[in-house]
C-alpha cells in the first residue's frame, strides 16, 4: 500500500488490536505504532500506553545488544512519559525511564503538582537498585527538589550520599535564614563535621549562631526542655528501676546484699537511667551538701576497676553538657587512685561525645595521659579520645594513637582499645595510614596474645575504618589473609560485615549464612562475627530485616554454641530500640537457656530492643529474671544492665542509628568507584583518565577514573552510550550517624565473650553506647528558636509510595502538644494550619513559622 494518511490510521488501529491479538514477544503493538500516525498517544487509553511502555523496554534492550538505532524509540518515550506525568502515573514514567536508561528526561516533565510523589518514589526505589543506578536515581531526585526549591528534602539526599559539595551548594542557594537554621538542626542530628564560611552565611553573628546549632550545643537544652515538659526531671535511683517490692521474698533478699558486683550494676543503671539529666541520687552532689558528699561515698563502694566505671558514669549523667560536666568531673583528676583518674578521663570523653566545642577541651585534658605508665589510666584516656573525636579524622589524634600501636611492650588491653579508638576516629574513612598501624599491631601479637578475648577488638577497629564502604575493603581483606590462622577468619568476617553494614547486599548475607552453616571444631570463633554480620548487612531496609530475623530463627535451631550465643545479639541489633513482639518472645525463651552465655546474651539483647522505650512487658520479664537468677551473680548483673537500658534516659533516649523516617541510615556511605567495579567488572587502565568496559560491547560505560566517595553522579545516554560523570568530591566527616552504629557494634563484639570482657574488668565498654544515644523527640521551636507548643498528630507511619492523590500518611493517631516522644515506626504531622513546618519530616528540632494565609474563625 502506498504511503497515505489512511495507511497510518490503519497502522494505529492494528497497533491497538495487537495489544490482545499478537503473538507474545512479537512487540507488534510497538511496530505498528512506529508505522502509524504521530497523533495523541493518550487518545487510545491508559492501558494501551502501559502496553507500549512494556514493549519499548524489551525493544530497547534488543536494539542496544544489536547496536541498532533508538532515536524513534526515544521520541515515543517522550510522549509516554509526558502522558504518565499528566495522569498521576509518575511511578510508571520512572520505571520506563529506568528501563531506557534516560532518567534525566524526568526533570523537564515534573510539575509542582507531582514532584513530591515522583521524588518519594525515586528515593524509595533507590534502596532496591544496584549501583550505580541507585546513585543516579537519587541524583535526579536531588535535581528535582532543587528545581522546586525544596531545599530541606534535597539536603537529606545530599546527606544520604555524604556529599559535602551539595550541602555547600544548598547553603549558598538558599537565602532564607530560617531554612538555614533548619539545615543546621538536620546536619547536627545526622552528625557531620561541617564548618560554615562567608559564602554560606555572610553575617558574622548569623554564621556563629548557625555553627552553634551544627556543633550540637543546643542538644542538651532541648533535651531538658522535653524532660521538664513531660515532668521526668526528678532523678531516679536504681531501686526505682528494680522495683523489688513487686517480687516475692527470695529475690529481694539477694538484692539487698551490698556486693561490689551489684554496686557496679547499680552504677551502670544509674548512669543509663539519668543520662543527660545532670543530676542523680548517687554521683552528683546536691548543692547544699559539702564537697565530700554522697558522690565520694558511692565511688568507693566499688572496687578497683569498678571505681573507673563509677567515675565515668558522671560523664554519662552530664552527657552533652560540656561546661557543667567538665567542671564536676575535674575533682576526680586530683585523686590518688589511678582507677578514679581513669574513670574521670573516660568521663571527659563521654561528656563531649557528639558535641563540638571551640575550646577543644577533650584534647587538652586527655592528651597528656595517653603516655602514662599505668594501663588503666592509658585506657581511660584512649577511650575518652575515641569517644570525643569519633568520626573527626583528626591527624593529631592519629599520631598519638599510632605511637601506642607501635609499642612492642604495650599490654594487649591498651593496644586493643587503641585500635577501637582509631577505628572510631576514622570510621568509614578508608584511611590507609590508620589501617596500616592496626594491621602491624595485629601481626606483632604473640601466639599467647592471639588466644586472649580482647584480641577480637583489633580486627573490629580495622573493620570500623571501612564501615559501609563496600568494595573498598578488598585490599585490606587480602592483607588479612596473611595473618596468623588463629585470627585470620575472625578478621575476614569482621571486615566483610563492617564494609557492607546497612547496604542490604543479599549476596553478602548468603555468604555469611554459608559460614554459619559449617560445623567446626571447638575453638573456632569466626562464626560469631558472621552472625552479627547478617544483622549488620540486613538492617538497611525493612524487607531484608524481616528476612534476616527468619534466617536467624533457623540458625538458632540448628547452629552450634558459638552461633547460638551470637544470635540474640544479632536480633538485638536488628530491632534496637524497637521491641517487636516475635523477637521479644524469642529473647524471653533464650533468657532461660541451659547455656549461661546464651542466656546472658539474650538478657542484654532484651535491654537493647527495649532501649529507651520503658516497655512494660520487657520490664516485667526482666523483673522476673532478676527473681529467677537471684543466686547467679553474673546473670543478675546482666539483668540489671538490661533494666537500665530499657529505662534509658527515663524513656526519652533511643539507640536506633536511624533518623528522618529511616531514610538516613547510619553507615550507608555510597562508594561510587566500588559500585562501578562490582557492578560492571571495570578495571581502569593505569594511565588513562577515562576507561571503557570491554566486557560489555553493547553498552559502553564511561566513567572518570577517580570517582569520589559518595559524590553525586550524573548520567546521560548519548547515541546509545551512557556517560557517567562525577561532581567535585568532598567526603564529610561523620560525627554521629556512622559513629552511632560503630558504638553499638563495638559493644556487641565485646558481648561475644561476655565472661571475659563485660563481666571481667572491661565492663566500661558499655559506655560506647553513648555514641548512639539521641533524644527520640519532636521539639517545635519558633523563629527565635524558643520552644513553641503546638498540637501534632502522632501515629503509625503508612507507606504511601506510588499512591495517587493525597493519601493519609499516618494511622491510629493521637493528638498531643509538642514536645512529644516518637517511638520506632511513628510519624508526626502538624494538627494546626496556624504554623508551617520548615522541615518535611517532623523529627528532632523543627522550626515553625506563622502561616500568612491562616485566619482564625471567630
UniProtKB/TrEMBL annotation:
Residues 2-246 form the RPN1 N-terminal domain. GO terms for biological process: proteasome-mediated ubiquitin-dependent protein catabolic process; regulation of protein catabolic process. InterPro entries: 26S_Psome_Rpn1 (IPR016643), ARM-like (IPR011989), ARM-type_fold (IPR016024), Proteasome/cyclosome_rpt (IPR002015), RPN1_C (IPR041433), RPN1_N (IPR040892). Acts as a regulatory subunit of the 26 proteasome which is involved in the ATP-dependent degradation of ubiquitinated proteins. It comes from the Eukaryota. This is 26S proteasome non-ATPase regulatory subunit 2 homolog. The keyword Ubl conjugation applies. Component of the 19S regulatory particle (RP/PA700) base subcomplex of the 26S proteasome. The 26S proteasome is composed of a core protease (CP), known as the 20S proteasome, capped at one or both ends by the 19S regulatory particle (RP/PA700). The RP/PA700 complex is composed of at least 17 different subunits in two subcomplexes, the base and the lid, which form the portions proximal and distal to the 20S proteolytic core, respectively. Keywords: Proteasome, Repeat, Ubl conjugation. Belongs to the proteasome subunit S2 family. One of its GO terms (cellular component) is proteasome storage granule. It holds the Pfam family PC_rep. One of its GO terms (molecular function) is enzyme regulator activity. Residues 801-854 form the 26S proteasome non-ATPase regulatory subunit RPN1 C-terminal domain.
